[in-house]
Amino acid sequence: MQQTYTRLVALTAGMLFIASCEYDIPEQQAGAGQAEIAAPKITEAVAELYPTEDNRVRGTIYFEIQATGMHVHGELTGLLPGKHGFHVHEFGDCTAEDGTSAGGHFAPRNMPHGAPSDSLRHVGDLGNIEANADGLARVDMTDTVLTFSGLNSIIGRGLVVHKGVDDLESQPTGAAGARVACGVIGIAARK
Question: pTM to 2 decimals?
Answer without folding.
Answer: 0.78
